[in-house]
């Protein structure tokens, strides 16, 4: 029995049917389209079995599968080493084309190159598209073609280019959904449970995003007790929302919120242009800093028992929910690097384990910003005072009391005195910065 000729669309960080550019182009194919997601063991094997992000991915895929069933189609879900999965698929199907959206992290670039080589060797055409950003790689550069390393001129160039084409084109393929492959009898399309993938439900959940909070974002974003953020970041990370729709909307509603979306793309192009930042300081002159890296101090920071309420509330929020307010993230990161003189890489790795919205480029970029070692970073002598931050942004102590129930009874004393820690940090940085 001959195998039907097929086009594959490979979902990765774009878990939606709406305004998905790679899917849009796949559905123009002359061949029926099988949508695919691969749970990559190279990534999964390093995660705890109750990782909330895997649960969110599975839930998002399940919703896509339900939508596809309305068209008599199904989502094909596989688990394994990506290269081996594709080798199996090539044997099982007569694949003519594969469409996918680009990913810009080093592992993904290497993976995609290997898969495209495999497809080419089997005479299968592959097509990749820009989907998770408005401008990628080298689209926003200085006049000499080099990458920006300072945010403000990057932002200005970004806005100039966006405004020349606004609104960015969106891609509605709903009239082509009938082109999805349909075969209700095919056993390949049994949607797996989370347990069959080897994971279990977490008590931590991704919160639905809320754009109503964005209208007054510039006035409310620094106050964690208000819970006035959009909760969009995990949805952007996994592509359950379209960056094109979001930017077109934000450009009309709130410039400050739009600037935050531009920061995301700035850090992505930094990671692409300077891949060393994942494990090294962007500013090599900071390589001589002698970090204390005290493991007991790090444990207190991780558990939220430093004696500084804003720091401890933020860490407890992170540990319990997978979220941390952006203002609090700056305070928490500064405290680890400056007050405790612990290498930013320790904090970056901990956030990578815990944050629902973990995105390598933004995580590394923001941690190096806080440490002073990154591009366009806070100067090394800028040391956040956690007590002043508390008074400015949680004056009524609503946020800290929510996360520190023992605040009025038995709360721990500060593990280090601020003035002492500040002087020590500045002296250590001064001595460590290479001339």
From TrEMBL:
What the record notes about the co-factor is: Binds 1 FAD per subunit.
Residues carrying the site annotation Electron transfer via tryptophanyl radical: 291, 344, 367
* Photolyase/cryptochrome alpha/beta domain segment(s): 5-134
List the GO molecular function terms: deoxyribodipyrimidine photo-lyase activity; DNA binding; FAD binding
| Any single biological process term in GO | response to stress
What are the UniProt keywords, alphabetically? Chromophore, FAD, Flavoprotein, Lyase
Q: Which residues bind FAD?
A: 217, 229-233, 257, 260-267
Q: Which cofactor does it need?
A: FAD; (6R)-5,10-methylene-5,6,7,8-tetrahydrofolate
InterPro entries, alphabetized: Crypto/Photolyase_FAD-like_sf, Crypto/Photolyase_N_sf, Cryptochr/Photolyase_FAD-bd, Cryptochrome/DNA_photolyase_1, DNA_photolyase_1_CS_C, DNA_photolyase_N, Rossmann-like_a/b/a_fold
PROSITE patterns recorded: DNA_PHOTOLYASES_1_1, DNA_PHOTOLYASES_1_2, PHR_CRY_ALPHA_BETA
- Which SUPFAM superfamilies does this entry report, sorted A to Z? Cryptochrome/photolyase FAD-binding domain, Cryptochrome/photolyase, N-terminal domain
Pfam annotation, one family: DNA_photolyase
Membership in a protein family:
Belongs to the DNA photolyase family.
Know the name of this protein? Answer: Deoxyribodipyrimidine photo-lyase
Give the species: Flavobacterium franklandianum
List the lineage, top down. Answer: Bacteria, Pseudomonadati, Bacteroidota, Flavobacteriia, Flavobacteriales
């Amino acid at each position: 029995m001959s195998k039907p000729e097929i086009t594959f669309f490979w979902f990765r960080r774009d878990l939606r049917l709406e305004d998905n550019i790679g899917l849009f182009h796949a559905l123009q194919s002359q061949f029926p389209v099988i949508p695919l997601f691969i749970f990559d063991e190279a990534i999964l094997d390093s995660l705890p079995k109750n990782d909330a992000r895997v649960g969110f991915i599975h839930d998002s895929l399940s919703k896509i599968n339900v939508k596809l069933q309305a068209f008599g189609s199904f989502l094909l879900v596989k688990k394994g080493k990506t290269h081996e999965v594709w080798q199996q698929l090539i044997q099982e199907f007569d694949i003519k084309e594969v469409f996918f959206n680009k990913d810009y992290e080093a592992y993904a670039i290497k993976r995609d190159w290997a898969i495209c080589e495999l497809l080419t060797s089997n005479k299968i055409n592959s097509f990749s598209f820009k989907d998770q950003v408005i401008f990628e790689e080298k689209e926003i550069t200085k006049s000499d073609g080099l990458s920006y390393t300072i945010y403000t001129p990057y932002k200005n160039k970004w806005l100039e280019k966006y405004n020349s084409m606004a609104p960015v084109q969106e891609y509605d393929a709903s009239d082509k959904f009938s082109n999805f492959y349909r075969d209700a009898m095919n056993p390949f399309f049994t949607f797996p449970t989370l347990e069959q993938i080897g994971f279990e439900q977490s008590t931590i959940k991704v919160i639905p995003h809320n754009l109503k909070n964005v209208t007054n974002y510039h006035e409310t974003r620094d106050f964690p007790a208000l819970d006035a953020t959009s909760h969009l970041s995990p949805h952007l990370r996994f592509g359950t929302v379209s960056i094109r729709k979001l930017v077109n909307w934000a450009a009309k509603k709130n410039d400050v919120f739009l600037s935050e979306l531009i920061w995301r793309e700035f850090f992505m192009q930094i990671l692409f242009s300077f891949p060393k930042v994942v494990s090294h300081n962007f500013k090599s002159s900071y390589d001589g800093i002698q970090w204390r890296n005290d493991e007991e101090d790090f444990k207190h920071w991780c558990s939220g028992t430093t004696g500084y309420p804003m720091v401890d509330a933020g860490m407890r929020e992170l540990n319990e929910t997978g979220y941390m307010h952006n203002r609090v993230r700056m305070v928490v990161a500064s405290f680890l690097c400056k007050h405790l003189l612990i290498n930013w890489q320790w904090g970056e790795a901990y956030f990578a384990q815990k944050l629902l919205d973990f995105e390598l480029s933004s995580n590394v970029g923001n941690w190096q910003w806080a440490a002073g070692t990154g591009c366009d970073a806070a100067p090394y002598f800028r040391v956040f005072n956690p007590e002043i931050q508390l008074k400015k942004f949680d004056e009524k102590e609503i946020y800290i009391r929510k996360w520190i129930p023992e605040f009025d009874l038995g709360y721990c004393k500060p593990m280090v005195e601020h003035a002492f820690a500040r002087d020590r940090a500045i002296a250590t940085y001064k001595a460590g910065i290479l001339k």
